Amino acid sequence: MNIEQAKRIPLALILEKIGCKPVRDNGHKATYLSPIRHEKTPSFQVDNAKNLWYDFGIGKGGGIIELTCAWLESQNESHTVPDALRWLRNMAGYTPSIQPIAVVDKAKANETPLVLKKVKAIQHPALINYLTGRGIPLDIASPYISEVSLYNRQNKKDFFALGFANEDGGYEIRNPFFKGCIRPKTITFIRGNIPKPDDIHLFEGFMDYLSALAHQNILKFDGDTIVLNSLSCLKFATPYIKNYGYRIAYTWMDNDDAGKKATKALADFFQTEECLQHIPKNGLYEPHKDVNAWHMHNLGLSPCNTMKKSESINTREFYQWPQSREPLVLDKF
């Protein structure tokens, strides 16, 4: 928490937290017994509109930082400004909000018409080949993604795809021609190998997460992981990090304007956490747009090569290939 963020916390809230209730309150101004000294006649006044206080008994006043420093001093506690900020963060239960990142989310646009029919382990060769074309081995993908059967109410067709579950029972849906989701839309939290780890990783999408694992040839990180599934879900990530005690936060956002804004928003949030170091990983995969693009480049793969591989296993026998960017449609499910 920084000073500007602290100034937005109502004085009345902090006074209530320390057990100080107003003797008189007309909505605009409230009078209290001073919380920073002993008195019998209330002379401590708070201007609720301006979020300022004044103690007439000692002729001093100010904002929330000055009050917190004075109160900590009265309790024989360390009372520097950093001490006050740490105390306010813990006392107010403060989690800074992250402003929405303006980005066109194709998955969100395609979420409404989908009905989930069945979830099973990945078996279809076309989906396995799709993963291979993205540089993701099946043994790395299997613990995280499933083969899902769906019905598209918009075009009245059944299809199948890869499904990545989130924390609220929704799914991110992917196949070579379709990117969508099934509500509710939120993040996916993945525990690491180490209980109560020091570090956490944050990815925009699950393909980037799987690409990072594939690059290192591991099944999961030692630290925890949050896959946002959309930059619109940034606000759902902060409660998983707040006051948990992580020491390092690695961010793997895209190398585009939206990704840079998300990295900055997360960096601002991390500064409110005590002893949390932020390490952006963007430099690892520049100049590529994201982790998966970088990973595919390292393996000599490309979208064009992926399509050729798909055709090489006769996927036309499995799908009715649409002319437009619709879901892949299975003749018989």
Describe the model:
The chain is an alpha+beta fold and 333 residues long. The chain contains 13 helices and 17 strands. The strands form four sheets. A five-stranded antiparallel beta sheet has the order 1-2-3-4-5, with helices on one face. It has a five-stranded antiparallel beta sheet with strand order 6-7-8-9-10. Strands 11-13-12-14-15 form a five-stranded mixed beta sheet. Strand 3 (44-47) and strand 4 (52-55) form a beta hairpin. Helix 3 (64-74) crosses helix 4 and helix 8 runs parallel beside helix 12. The N and C termini lie far apart (54 Å). The model is unreliable at 307-333 (pLDDT under 50).
List the topology elements:
Blueprint: H1 3-7, H2 11-17, E1 24-25, E2 29-32, E3 44-47, E4 52-55, E5 60-62, H3 64-74, H4 81-92, H5 106-109, E6 114-120, H6 125-133, H7 138-141, E7 145-152, E8 157-165, E9 171-175, E10 178-182, E11 188-190, E12 199-203, H8 206-216, E13 224-227, H9 234-241, E14 248-252, H10 257-270, E15 277-280, H11 282-285, H12 291-298, H13 303-312, E16 319-320, E17 329-330
Parallel strand pairs: 12-13, 12-14, 14-15
Antiparallel strand pairs: 1-2, 2-3, 3-4, 4-5, 6-7, 7-8, 8-9, 9-10, 11-13, 16-17
Helix pairs in contact: 3-4, 6-13, 8-12
